[in-house]
Every structure is written in structure tokens, then in C-alpha cells.
Amino acid sequence: RFASRAGKETCLEYLEENLGKVKKNNQKYFQYMTGKEIIAMFKSLVDDSSIDNDLALNLGNTAKDEIEEERNWRMLLVKNTENTFGPSNDYTTEISLPDNFNIEHKVALVDSNGNEDEYDPIPFEDLVKNKDVDYYSIDYANKKMYISGSVSETKTIHLYYFKFTDDIALDDEPEWPERFHKIIPYRMAEIWLSGIDADTLTRLQFPTHQAVAKRLYSLMQKWDSRLWSKAMGDRAGFKERNRAYRTNIIQELSND
Hints:
Blueprint: H1 13-18, E1 24-25, E2 28-29, H2 35-46, H3 53-68, E3 77-80, E4 84-85, E5 95-96, E6 101-110, E7 116-121, E8 135-139, E9 144-147, E10 155-163, H4 183-195, H5 200-204, H6 206-234, H7 244-255
Parallel strand pairs: 7-8
Antiparallel strand pairs: 1-2, 3-10, 4-10, 5-9, 6-7, 6-10, 8-9
Helix pairs in contact: 2-3, 2-4, 3-4, 4-6
């Protein structure tokens, strides 16, 4: 199963020794982790096979969600073009957001010739007083978007946003690059050993697990920063007009 995933990153030897889920292919190790394998590694890290699988899976999804909320990961950036805005629409027109919507990155209206007009955001509570100006506004509580101003022809709304990923199931793998899956069981162990009963010997392993988790997380941060740096270099005007979401991303990169 792993051997068919040629071209992926080298796997930690720990997984080969403790999970037995890694196969050798052309002198390289490739791995990805399902929910079952994440749980197995977590139980091995905390040295407790008695932990309920449902509890462990919930902890794994908590760790996944926590990591995904810690920054705007480019791997979670997606585009939606299901909605349009036309001459008959105005600032009162409700536009439903995708079910997996977390936070927007960019909103633009594109005409039939591919010409793009990028819109700036305004707070939802300022929508009415700006109803005649070209802006977009999001009602996060009800997952609705509104476009103010007007257009002379129907245009497609290009919504770029960061998504929530689905919960990890026992037989599914996280929606991350495979080489970073192992961050989740290490983060689970970090949470478990810092807040739940563990014997003395197991608790002594906590600093080691924490250090490994931080190193793996740092690698994922650096990878993400490279992706954003490339996007900023490839995209004309990335920093122009001091858009808030770009400012946040630039701040994240400066902290890496």
C-alpha cells in the first residue's frame, strides 16, 4: 500500500519499527496514515493500549483542528465559482458560503471575457452604509456573503477561501501532505501527557515527544512559507492596497 506511493518523503524509522505499516521500495520509505494508524502511533507514544479508540480519534481530530487554525495554510486554500452577481442583484442578495468555509482569502467578480475585478472587504455591520460602493461583506454567523455596488452584466464570483477539513475517520487519511500526517499523533501525545494521568516513566517521555512535535510542525511551517513566498513572487500586486488578509499572511511569514 505504501510502496505504491512512490515519490513521497522519507518516513521516520519510528513508524517502521512501531507500526509495521511501512514497506521498502527502491531503498526509500513512503508513508501515509489513516485514522487507525494515527491512533496506533499515539497509543505507542503514550504507552497505553487501553485508551478507547473513539476517545483517541476525537483527540486526533482536536489536534488536527488546532493545527489548521494556527495559521492560514496554503494547502487549505480552495476556490469556489458556484455563484454569480448580476444587474438584478444588490447588497441585500444572500450568497451562501460553502459548507467547509473557514475564512476568505480573496473575492473577485469575473466577466465572460475573464476580466477580474477584485473586491475589498468591509465589516458586515457597515454593509448598508456602503451599499452603493463595490465591496463584499460576510455574515460569519449565518455563513452568507453580500456584494455591494452594482454591475452592468452578470459576473461569476470567484471566492478563494481557506477550508475546514473533514474529521479523520478510522479508514481515512488527513487532507494534508502525507509526510506531515505524523504531526497529529505527536500533538495528541503532547495533549494527553500534559493533561491526563500517566505513569512516571511515560511522563518522562513528554519533553521528547514535545520536541519532535515542534520540529515536525516547524518543517510544515517552512514548507507553507515557501509556498506563500512563491505565490507572492509570482503574483503581481500581492501586497498592493494593504489588504488585510495579505498583511496577516506576511506577518505569519515574518514570524516563521
